């Protein structure tokens, strides 16, 4: 019987090629889009889930409460936290701290490459499942001159991976011995590094690091089996306060590491979304795109039902039972979806390189995974059943007496009000979803435009970043002076990190009159001379650091927010104009100094967070060169920079980035979401229009006689087109009414994740509604015009 179903289904498909092609196109677009989205969703959900001890692996996060009772959660913690956890908490089996990431030069002979690495404590490779192919994971990071590298770096430097014991020069000054080689970090890891250095020597070189008030490290813990995490977090609350009595408003807690990538957003100390919101959003989009394709099948199959009415009648007369007919029509739908699934799989295989490039992933179709094939078959079967069950039940319900007694087939297809409402509701659903995606695309694009064009208080245009290392660390000032004389260069400075993405923070700031309970977290930025000038930051009071003032090595510049948090705006002061903290004394990490300048607030981080208080101090080991070029002379400036960099630092490759490019990287997730939403919105509206085309074809068949009568009575072609089109435009109008408030609510919630955001304007809904209405009108017009131009003699011939 199944074989018979398949034969009949195949004959119907080949006999009605246009109908089959439209159905297959809609299903292929829906299934291919869903497969791509689900591959991305699966990859996102797999991040950090490959560690053998994942259920016992936790990251320590810190809640920082300010005097205004604001609570912020940060992954940066003190360096001292990791060893203290193991020493004082029996629930902790191992703990490790590591830096976020450093770009350093690794050289062997004439081979030299800049790679991203980190400093970490010895237990790194015993806690995380980064298998070592050479060396002992227990001892690889114990020695002060140790170096552990990835297989990729080993091949770059030595041409092979068995290199334990070989020497590598770090930063063109320190020779380190390779004590281990680990497998390349998998793509589904949130921790990315190509080499690891022991943290102890690094800490010794930074005397301010061993302070409980100073953050900048990531801390992870491997718990013992069967630990009560709630009870442990209760013990963790005052852990830092017990070691530093001044830190009364700083608490810590453990959060499952497997969840940190997707659940990175916290509100009042509690997890409140993050990338998981995008994962859920696109999972829903994948389901909806598939549903839209199924709805198209229903509408097109129903529209074509008049042509199969007599077939049903004859089959019933010769003894076919209703169950047989249901099986036949459902089988046709399932066969169609299986064919569509195979075509969709080929399409996905063709598109996945572009999709990987767009998402910056390395996804592949898991052909060798039986679960994938079972899932694909299940998806095809479910899609076929969803798409075909309604047409199957409808067609099998036709009565053979009415079908075969000579009536026009269209006369048989007068549906009950409930069936009509169902079809219309499905069309409304399609266009409501399309509107949601279009409105979402508009608002995301406007927010990203706002971010790109907002005055950040710091000018990122015409600014080049370059790493300061090797000989440049010893001859920075002559190099800077040479750059200032070079063509195309306007000003030069340096900082310890990207001024647009500052990580390091501390509570170790003191000033006269500071309350004992004030644990305000201040960001810090070490800089050199001309920083304010180079970054075009507005100086609202005082001056920036100058060689004319030797004491500036211990003086400070603060931003307006820092002045507000320290309560200095309304004090009587000397040494500065009224309303300025200039001349006031303060202490940073127990180093006293004088405030010599106040800069206007500028963004230190993503626009998702409000501007934080900042202390700018003079740094002597800054590793980021900041070069402002003359407008329109970027090429000359780059040529000058490359020439002088090779002259002063010949052993290092010349590499650079632009400040605005680094800024764009802060919003990779939002940019990706905007692009994906726009692409899938186009696909959704395209599939929905196929469904509308099917419904228009059905309605034209239903109203053939009515149109003929109206034309005989004198109705013009224009009035008939308006009549037929008006029915569909009403459905689109209902979709607009339903989708608009839902879109406003969803996008309002999304915008709340930004401290600085656009307002949702009425014109966005008008534009989206007009776009959908125009597309729908164009889709319907073809069938409406075709029906209006039919000769009424042909329409009424059977009456």
From TrEMBL:
Molecular function terms from GO: transmembrane transporter activity
Membrane topology label: Multi-pass membrane protein
Limits of the MacB-like periplasmic core domain: 22-236, 460-642
Keyword Magnesium: no
Subcellular location: Cell membrane
Main localization, broad class: membrane
Transmembrane annotation, as ranges: 20-41, 278-300, 333-355, 371-395, 420-444, 679-700, 712-740, 760-780
A single GO cellular-component term on record: plasma membrane
Keywords for this protein: Cell membrane, Membrane, Transmembrane, Transmembrane helix
InterPro entries tied to this protein: ABC3_permease_C, MacB_PCD, Macrolide_Exporter_MacB
Every ABC3 transporter permease C-terminal domain range: 284-400, 680-788
Superkingdom in the source lineage: Bacteria
Protein name: ABC transporter permease
Protein's organism: Spirosoma profusum
The organism's taxonomic lineage, starting at the top: Bacteria, Pseudomonadati, Bacteroidota, Cytophagia, Cytophagales
């Amino acid at each position: 019987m199944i074989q018979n179903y398949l034969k009949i289904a195949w004959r119907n498909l080949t006999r009605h090629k246009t109908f089959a092609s439209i159905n297959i196109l809609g299903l292929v677009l829906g299934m291919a889009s869903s497969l791509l989205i689900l591959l991305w969703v699966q990859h996102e959900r797999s991040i950090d889930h490959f560690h053998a001890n994942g259920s016992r692996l936790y990251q320590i996060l810190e809640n920082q409460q300010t005097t205004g009772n604001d609570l912020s959660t940060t992954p940066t913690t003190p360096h001292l936290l990791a060893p203290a956890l193991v020493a004082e908490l029996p629930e902790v089996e191992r703990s490790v701290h590591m830096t976020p990431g450093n770009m350093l030069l690794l050289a062997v002979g004439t081979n030299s490459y800049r790679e991203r690495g980190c400093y970490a404590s010895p237990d790194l490779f015993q806690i995380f499942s980064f298998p070592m192919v050479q060396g002992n994971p227990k001892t690889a990071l114990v020695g002060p001159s140790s170096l552990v590298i990835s297989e990729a770096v080993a091949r770059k430097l030595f041409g092979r991976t068995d290199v334990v014991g070989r020497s590598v020069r770090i930063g063109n000054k320190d020779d380190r011995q390779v004590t281990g080689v680990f497998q390349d970090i998998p793509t589904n890891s949130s921790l990315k590094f190509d080499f690891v250095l022991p943290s102890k020597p690094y800490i010794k070189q930074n005397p301010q690091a061993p302070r409980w008030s100073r953050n900048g490290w990531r801390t992870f813990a491997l718990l013992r089996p069967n630990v009560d995490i709630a009870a442990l977090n209760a013990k963790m609350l005052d852990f830092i306060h017990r070691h530093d009595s001044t830190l009364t408003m700083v608490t810590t807690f453990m959060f499952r590491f497997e969840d940190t990538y997707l659940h990175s957003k916290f509100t009042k100390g509690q997890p409140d979304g993050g990338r998981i919101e995008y994962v859920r959003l696109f999972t829903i989009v994948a389901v909806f795109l598939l549903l839209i394709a199924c709805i198209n099948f229903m509408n097109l199959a129903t529209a074509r039902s008049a042509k199969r009415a007599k077939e049903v009648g004859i089959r019933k007369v010769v003894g076919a039972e209703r169950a047989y007919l249901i099986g036949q029509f459902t089988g046709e739908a399932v066969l169609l979806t299986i064919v569509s699934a195979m075509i969709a799989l080929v399409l996905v295989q063709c598109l996945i390189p572009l999709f990987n490039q767009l998402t910056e992933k390395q996804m592949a179709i898991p052909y060798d995974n039986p679960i994938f094939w079972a899932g694909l078959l299940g998806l095809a079967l479910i899609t076929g059943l969803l798409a075909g069950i309604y047409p199957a039940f409808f067609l099998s319900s036709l009565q053979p007496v009415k079908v075969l007694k000579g009536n026009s087939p269209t006369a048989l297809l007068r549906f009950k009000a409930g069936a009509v409402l169902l079809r219309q509701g499905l069309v409304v659903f399609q266009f409501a979803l399309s509107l949601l995606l279009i409105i979402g695309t508009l608002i995301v694009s406007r927010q990203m435009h706002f971010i790109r064009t907002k005055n950040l208080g710091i000018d990122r245009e015409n600014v080049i970043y370059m790493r300061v290392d090797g000989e440049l660390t010893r001859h920075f000032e002559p190099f800077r002076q040479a750059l200032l004389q070079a063509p195309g260069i306007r000003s030069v400075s340096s900082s310890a990190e990207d001024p647009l993405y500052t990580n390091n923070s501390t509570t170790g700031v003191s000033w006269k009159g500071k309350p004992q309970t004030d644990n305000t977290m201040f960001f810090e930025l070490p800089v050199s001379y001309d920083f304010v000038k180079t970054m075009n930051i507005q100086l609202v009071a005082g001056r920036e650091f100058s060689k004319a003032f030797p004491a500036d090595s211990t003086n400070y510049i603060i931003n307006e927010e820092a002045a507000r948090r320290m309560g200095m705006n309304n004090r009587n002061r000397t040494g500065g104009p009224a309303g300025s903290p200039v001349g006031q004394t303060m202490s940073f990490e127990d180093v006293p100094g004088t405030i010599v300048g106040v800069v206007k607030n500028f963004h230190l981080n993503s626009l998702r967070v409000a501007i934080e208080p900042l202390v700018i101090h003079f740094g002597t080991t800054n590793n980021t060169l900041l070069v402002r070029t003359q407008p329109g002379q970027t090429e000359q400036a780059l040529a000058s920079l490359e020439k002088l960099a090779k002259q002063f630092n010949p052993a290092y490759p010349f590499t650079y980035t632009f400040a605005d490019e680094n800024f764009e990287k802060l919003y990779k997730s939002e940019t990706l979401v905007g692009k994906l939403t726009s692409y899938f919105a186009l696909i959704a509206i395209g599939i929905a229009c196929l469904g509308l085309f099917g419904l228009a074809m059905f309605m034209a068949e239903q109203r053939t006689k009515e149109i003929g009568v109206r034309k005989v009575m004198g109705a013009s072609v224009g009035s008939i087109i308006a009549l037929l089109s008006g029915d569909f435009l009403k459905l689109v109008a209902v979709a607009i009414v339903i989708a608009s408030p839902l879109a406003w609510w969803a996008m309002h919630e999304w915008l709340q994740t930004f401290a600085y955001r656009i307002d949702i304007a009425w014109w966005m809904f008008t534009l989206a509604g007009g776009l959908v209405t125009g597309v729908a009108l164009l889709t319907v017009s073809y069938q409406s015009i075709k029906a209006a131009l039919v000769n009424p003699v042909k329409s009424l011939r059977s009456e």
